[in-house]
Amino acid sequence: MRASGGRVELGDRRPDDPPLPEELTAALREWAAFAAAAGRSGVPAEQDLVRRRGRQLAARVAGVRGRPVEFTDPASGAVESVRAPTAARHRALDPEPAGPTPWDTGLPVAAFFAVFVAIADISLSRAFAEAFGLLWIPANLLVVLGLAPSLWLLRTVPFWRWPALGAAVGLAVAWVVLLAGLLG
Predict the structure, then answer these.
(1) Do residues 112 and 89 both lie within one domain?
(2) Which residues, in sequence order, are bridge partners of residue 69?
(3) Least packed by Cβ within 10 Å: which of 4, 13, 32, 127?
(4) How many structural domains compose the chain?
């Protein structure tokens, strides 16, 4: 497998080779076009990126064909044999299956972050209110809206879901306390 003039040459094709999936063929075309552009620019970082992506694609081609593939580095011309990833490498790349939810350790972490974030938000909002009056409301709203996407994304990450849950609860508690302070 090598890039030549913006195209990929797969080389030693055998009659019993299965056809490559369309998305892999498209990825190979895209890689060849980028390899041609990186070859013209001569930037080492781009050439390194082309080399690594080429090896990844060669491994995928080897997996489809069921045998090693010769990969030619577009920058140096060095030829190497690339094999398909083994099942052990696939297991190393795939995340572990989810185990039981660790409620006994997760809830104390969430409670700590809830208290910490609530105290911090209340303290900062009150200090802002003393200096600028009711402008603490839009300022605090910006803080909450700025944190919301990060907290939403962290909800699925095994450990970080607990601090994210605690921070969300702490912000909600802080809003209740601050709004109750306005009323009384």
Answers:
(1) no
(2) 82
(3) 13
(4) 2
